Amino acid sequence: MNKKLISVAAVGALLIGLAGCASGGAGAGGGAETDGGSGPKPIEDLVVGFAQVGAESGWRTANTTDIQSAFEEAGIELKFSDAQQKQENQIKAIRSYIQQQVDYIAFSPVVESGWDAVLNEAKAAGIPVILTDRAVDSADDSLYESFLGSDFVVEGQKAGDWVVEEFADADSVKIIQLEGTTGSAPAIDRAEGFAEVIGEDPKFEVVASQTGDFTRAGGKQVMEALLKSNPDVDLVYAHNDDMGLGAIEAIEAAGLVPGQDIKIVTIDAVKDGMQALADGKINFIVECSPLLGAQLVDIIKTLNEGGSVDKRIITEETTFTQEQAVEALPDRQY
Ligand code: AHR
Fold it and tell me: Of 10, 53, 167, 241, which alpha carbon lies 20 to 30 A from 216's?
């Protein structure tokens, strides 16, 4: 083939590729096409690979259960892997889904960076990827079809707004921040949103900020250590309920009363957190919904039918005071 013919063929191939992309379907080369390459694949023939972060928190367990039951209910086969909070495990799982030629890959990235290579591999294999819960920091958003999950910056802002109101009459407020997994989107964004709000008044001082890795044990351990060097702290801002629950244990072990001697604001609103809020041990919770399964199934069904989906789908969430937790607890699903 001469050079001209090669370039005509290349443009033709590119146009076919673009048509597939524009449809938003697995036609980008993905396995969801029927053998003839046209029309949606029967739902019962679809295979989706899901690479989960781990089982670090009550939130994560609820998220896993919700995703698994949504796929079961929809009659779509779900291959599931637990990365035990390690990025290399998640990358391995995604590569294995590519090898198995699943129709779609969904995952909640442990950390924000370092995904371009494996996402390009999925793209080259024509397998559409959906991000759930957490973002990647890739500059190329064609590497995934959609990102479904909370706005973590807004969650941090909501926590900050409550703190500003709660301590309106105080002259100075010393804060310990228990961060989520280092490098993860929720840890980065929740710190940013909170700092933005409290940063407007110099009376708020974050005296210590350390990661508890989103676990109860991590929250307890970090709080024990930080309490020793900051016995006069006024507030704990924990990036999730589990770390807040761990902090409660540390505060009680130090002979102090959580929720009174030291106020606590957390994010998630899982049942254990809501119970501690209703019991007066936590003062305020910003909700982060783990119920993403049904929306993920809808995205996959839409793509399978050749439809398009929004690049960013933000979950709707609320906040809870102690009184609201008492009311909400009996009907809380997770
Ligand atoms: O990415 C969502 C966060 O991850 C939740 O707030 C936390 O509990 C989980 O581990």
Answer: 167
Residue-averaged pLDDT of the chain: 91
Quick one: pLDDT at residue 38? 63
Contact 246, 217 (CB under 8 A): yes
52, 56, 57: residue to mutate for ligand 1 pocket, most atoms within 8 A of CB? 57
At 41, which helix (H) or strand (E)? none
Looking at CATH, the fold of the domain delimited by 3-146+294-316 is given as: Rossmann fold (3.40.50)
The residue length of the chain stands at 334
Helices and strands: H and E segment counts in the chain: 11, 12
pLDDT of residue 19: 32
- In this structure, whether the domain defined by 152-288 belongs to CATH 3.40.50.150 is answered with no
**Which of helix, strand or coil describes residue 288?**
coil
Pocket test for ligand 1, best of 189, 214, 315 (most atoms within 8 A of CB): 214
Residues 81, 304 contacting (CB under 8 angstroms): no
| pLDDT digit string, tens, across residues 223-246 | 999 999 999 999 999 999 999 999
Domain boundaries, the chain: 3-146+294-316, 152-288
